[in-house]
Design goal:
Blueprint (H helix, E strand, L loop, with lengths): L1 H12 L3 H4 L2 H4 L2 H10 L5 H18 L4 H7 L2 H10 L5 H22 L1 H17 L4 H9 L14 H12 L5 H18 L8 H22 L4 H6 L1 H19 L8 H25 L7 H14 L7 H25 L20 H12 L3 H9 L2 H18 L4 H24 L2 H5 L1 H13 L10 H17 L10 H15 L2 E5 L6 E5 L1 H4 L2 H18 L6 H8 L1 H11 L7 H17 L1 H9 L2 H7 L3 H8 L2
């Protein structure tokens, strides 16, 4: 009786927010937990006590420190157990859990993941079975309980799929459809398409889901009233997640849920939706630069452009000035404030929050666009090279700082590789730009200092290939740059390029004969589909550098690459060497023989003329025959 009276008084006190966060009230959280867990709800006085305990917890949750205190003092686990056991007041426990996850999602999952998964499993089973309005209420609650990562084969997945399939296959109002799209987006973020079963029914459902998401985006973003668009940001953000995964499924060659005919149909539907995204950005972008939804829209557009630049070409060209302006603003703000990407489109919070590196998401698509004359001209006129050079330097600093988590470093490395590809497109298509724009001189200095820190046999071979080839291609146009005039940085740079170029091939016994054949070095095999073309371009660029840097052949001699290359050619069967590789080797050998008497002598001492004849290196053979 006295405990019940005490709880009633505390419940009254908690109607005052100041008292609800008083230490003496917070200290009673374990007491509230025990009342909810241990009281017999069949007793009328116990039912009243449970109600008072929930009232106190509700009041504490509403205070600034409340969510943290509830998690730290055990209320999270108590509420999970109350709902799973369907104890008295379990509906209030669920509302409190939703509020807790909305306010402190990361802390909740860190503190009690198994208890929250138990709630998710219970809710999922109820969701599948419900055939009335409860189904839509559960759908709204469920998305709060989907963890950041959900392992394939999780107990809840079949029930969630069945429940969502039932909802989305029916004729619905927006208020019924929107929670289902949000839940589907959360599941897709947590486990990709693993929650959708393979086979005909699964592919049909995935196509339906993508179609619904694209229709929602079109209906929302083609609205002329931006205020109405703002009201739908959370559901459109969820649709963006579904669209991004649809792009992945449409481009997946093996193991896709979709048949080829479905992929073709979905690409057309996606194109219409992205037309609406572009339209929205053109209408609202300049007016709403600070709106986080603009970032979300640019991010999803970047995912589309990374795979598809042939459609909407005119619209994309018209949008490029805005995209670059926005990316520059984001980049400068990020450098000042250290902002990072947070996509909480599925979080329980009321407002979606997206902050981050817009240029990272745009780079793959922009790189594709630099291969085409008109988009490339727009990018140059809008200052893309200057922005990209600054961005590359900043990303490199992040890469070598070791302050980022491994997954973040992988993203930075991928971004650096994409930036290298974009620079190469500029160098090849508009070579005069390199000597005209001062930013490329600054970029050359970054490459001179940075390249030697990448080990040629290490895990970053793709990045090394991109930076090596870019540096060599730029060095041809910046031969008068002081940093390239036999400085220690220049020697280190060229030594690293030699190590990379020289290490690609080895002699290996022919498995079907007695001779030796040319083979890729083991460290290069896995990456060769990505770096093979870069190696060939790098060999060509290195050969072009030798007449420009007359001290370079001495570095080659000192590295013994020349001797090793000639020895390699003398050991392997000429028929085992691809013609393009022969051409690459010949280009280097010809320039070494032409620009350096000591190199010419080494070539002759190693049967250079005979090797030239064996490999069909006519230019080398002719060069060696001349005095």
């Amino acid at each position: 009786m006295f405990q019940a009276l005490g709880l009633t008084l505390l419940a009254c006190f908690c109607t005052d927010p100041d008292l609800a966060e008083h230490p003496q009230v917070l200290n009673k959280i374990p007491t509230f937990n025990s009342v909810i867990s241990a009281c017999d709800s069949g007793d009328a006085s116990c039912g009243s006590m449970i109600n008072d305990a929930y009232q106190c917890l509700d009041a504490i949750l509403a205070t600034p420190k409340g969510p943290r205190e509830l998690v730290n003092r055990g209320a999270l686990v108590t509420l999970c157990q109350a709902y799973v056991s369907h104890n008295y007041g379990c509906d209030r426990a669920l509302r409190l859990l939703v509020g807790l996850l909305a306010a402190a999602e990361a802390k909740c999952w860190q503190r009690a993941p198994s208890a929250l998964i138990d709630v998710l499993d219970t809710l999922s089973a109820e969701f599948q079975k419900a055939e009335d309005m409860t189904k839509f209420q559960l759908c709204e609650a469920l998305r709060h309980f989907v963890p950041p990562l959900l392992p394939p084969g999780s107990k809840c997945l079949p029930s969630l799929y069945q429940g969502l399939s039932s909802i989305l296959s029916s004729k619905l109002s927006a208020s019924q459809r929107d929670p289902a799209l949000k839940l589907a987006a959360c599941l897709t973020q947590a486990c990709g398409s693993e929650w959708i079963p393979p086979g005909r029914s699964g592919s049909k459902f995935f196509a339906l889901l993508t179609n619904l998401a694209c229709v929602e985006v079109r209906m929302s973003l083609e609205e002329l009233d931006l205020v109405e668009v703002d009201k739908k940001q959370d559901v459109v953000a969820a649709c963006y997640i579904l669209m991004e995964h649809a792009i992945l499924e449409c481009t997946r060659e093996e193991g896709s849920l979709l048949r080829e005919v479905q992929k073709v149909q979905l690409v057309g539907i996606l194109e219409e939706a992205f037309g609406a995204v572009v339209y929205y950005l053109r209408q609202a972008g300049w007016k709403k630069l600070g709106d986080p939804f603009i970032f979300a829209s640019i991010r999803i557009l970047g995912a589309w452009l990374a795979e598809e630049t042939s459609s909407l070409k005119q619209e994309i060209c018209d949008l490029l000035p805005f995209l670059l302006h926005y990316a520059k603003l984001q980049f400068e703000a990020g450098k000042k404030g250290g902002s990072s990407l947070q996509n909480t489109g599925c979080s329980g919070g009321q407002e979606p929050v997206w902050h981050g590196d817009a240029l990272r998401f745009l780079l793959p698509g922009l790189s594709h666009l630099t291969t085409e004359d008109r988009p490339r001209a727009i990018l140059i006129s809008e200052g893309a090279p200057v922005l990209l050079c600054q961005y590359f330097s900043h990303q490199w600093e992040m890469f070598v700082s070791d302050l980022e988590a491994p997954f973040a470093l992988d993203a930075v490395e991928s971004t650096l590789q994409t930036a290298c590809a974009m620079f190469l497109n500029f160098v090849v298509a508009v070579p005069e730009l390199i000597s005209r724009e001062d930013c490329f001189t600054a970029l050359m200095d970054v490459l001179l200092k940075s390249l030697p820190s990448l080990r040629p046999q290490g895990e970053h071979l793709g990045l090394l290939a991109g930076m090596t080839t870019l540096g060599l291609m730029m060095a041809r146009k910046l031969s008068a740059h002081p940093g390239l005039q036999m400085t220690p940085e220049a020697k280190g740079f060229f030594s690293t390029t030699i190590t990379f170029l020289a290490g690609a091939h080895v002699a290996k016994p022919d498995p079907v004969g007695d001779s030796m054949i040319l083979h890729l070095a083991p460290a290069y095999e896995a990456a060769w589909p990505t770096i093979g073309e870069l190696w060939l371009l790098g060999m060509q660029a290195f050969a072009s550098c030798m007449p420009l840097f007359l001290w370079l052949p001495e570095v080659v001699l000192h590295s013994v690459w020349l001797q090793d290359l000639l020895e390699l050619l003398s050991r392997v069967a000429p028929a085992s060497v691809d013609l393009e590789v022969v051409t690459a080797f010949q280009g280097v050998l010809v320039e070494l023989a032409r620009t350096s008497p000591p190199c010419r002598e080494v070539i002759q001492q190693h049967r250079g003329a005979e090797l030239a004849n064996l490999y069909g290196m006519a230019a080398l053979e002719q060069g060696l025959s001349q005095q």
